[in-house]
């Protein structure tokens, strides 16, 4: 499991311990790698993966990314999904975070969060579910699940075209 934009490394540490049958590969931009190492240790060293640069060669059956689409610019979201779509070994992609549906926030808290993000960085913001779905389809990924999660978040699961569950 490749995690894109592991941030602090908390997800990597938690999921690696909770799912020992998976090899969890944390990744992020270079300046976050030292902080991730403090969570995961040297045995599970994170790799540099910046969606704005050429991707390292990674063999992963699945990709997970949490709370990233709304803090990236839309062109970065496009590059992330394009990079995921190019992964030959990929079977599944899981994207977690808040999303709008039909161009509307699913809750007042998500509307406030979106406004705060756009005030801080106009290129960021809560993304529309439909835009993510169209982009994923264009990148060779088909939505198979859209799961409600706590705090008005969602977990979308996509499969690579040609892979059957």
Structure description:
The chain is α/β, with parallel strands linked by helices and 165 residues long. It folds into two domains: 58 residues, no CATH class; 65 residues, no CATH class. It contains five helices and nine strands. The protein has a seven-stranded mixed β-sheet with strand order 3-2-1-4-5-9-8, with helices on one face.
Give the biggest sheet: 7 strands, mixed
Number of domains: 2
Task: List unreliable stretches of 5+ residues.
Answer: none
User: What letter string, H or E per element, gives the SSE order?
Assistant: EHEHEEHEEHEHEE
N- to C-terminal distance: 17 Å
Q: What is the averaged pLDDT score? A: 95
Tally the beta strands.
9
Report the total helices: 5
Tell me the radius of gyration: 15 Å
Strand content: 15-25%
- Tell me the strand order in the biggest sheet: 3-2-1-4-5-9-8
Percent range for helical residues? Answer: 25-40%
Sum up the overall morphology in one term.
globular
Category by helix and strand content: alpha/beta
List keywords for this structure.
165 residues; 2 domains; alpha/beta
């Amino acid at each position: 499991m490749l995690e894109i934009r592991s941030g602090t490394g908390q997800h990597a540490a938690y999921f690696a311990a909770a799912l020992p049958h998976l090899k969890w590969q944390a990744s992020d931009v270079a300046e976050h790698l030292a902080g991730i190492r403090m969570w995961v240790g040297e045995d599970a060293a994170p790799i540099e993966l910046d969606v704005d640069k050429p991707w390292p060669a990674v063999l992963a059956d699945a990709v997970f990314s949490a709370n990233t689409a709304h803090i990236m610019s839309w062109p970065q979201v496009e590059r992330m999904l394009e990079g995921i779509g190019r992964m030959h070994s990929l079977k599944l992609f899981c994207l977690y975070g808040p999303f709008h549906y039909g161009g509307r926030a699913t809750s007042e808290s998500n509307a406030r969060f979106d406004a705060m993000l756009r005030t801080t960085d106009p290129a960021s913001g809560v993304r529309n579910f439909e835009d993510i779905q169209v982009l994923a389809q264009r990148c060779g990924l088909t939505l198979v699940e859209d799961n409600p999660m706590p705090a008005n978040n969602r977990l979308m699961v996509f499969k690579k075209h040609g892979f059957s569950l």
